[in-house]
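To assess whether ligand presence alters the predicted conformation, the chain was also submitted together with heme C. Input:
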Amino acid sequence: MRLSHLAVTASLLCLLVVSCIDDNENGSLTSTHGSRSSMDTGRDCIACHTSGSEEGEFIVAGTVYQSNGTSVYPNSTVYLYTGADGTGSLAATIEVDGRGNLYTSDRLSFGSGLYPVVRGSDTTQVAYMGSVITSGSCNAAGCHDAGSRVSVP
Ligand code: HEC
């Protein structure tokens, strides 16, 4: 009796621990150079990765392309500044993963707006977005959809 109780308690504990490790809602889920767990390159990530979704909410997500606008640019980096052209303070640095996607579940504050800067692996490759963003849904329709990709020169 006692032993089987113990066994049940132990397996319940295991389940609890495993489900905690699996649960991304309490931890940060952010792309890193080289990682390849993302998907659906070019699609509007936050349409699915929305608040309350099982797949985890992203605050910023999108895809970076090379200058041709069709090949992705893996391992590039996106920066969000409070001022235009990389001025002001740096609010966030998000590494683009090995599939060309970037994403973060970190609750960063957009304040009155942030200016994105994208850099390639060569330091001369830099693109400044001229207007501010107050949402991080880069690939949304009417933003960087098929006709107007985020790209590095
Ligand atoms: C059509 C809905 C949909 C779109 C669009 C979508 N995702 Fe997902 N994503 C999911 C679902 C569902 C899962 C969980 C199942 C899976 O891994 O396939 C997931 C899982 C993930 C994971 C793994 C999460 C983890 O827990 O490790 C990452 C990373 C990810 N998506 C990134 C992205 C990025 C970046 C984009 C946009 C370029 C994107 N997704 C677009 C539905 C979507």
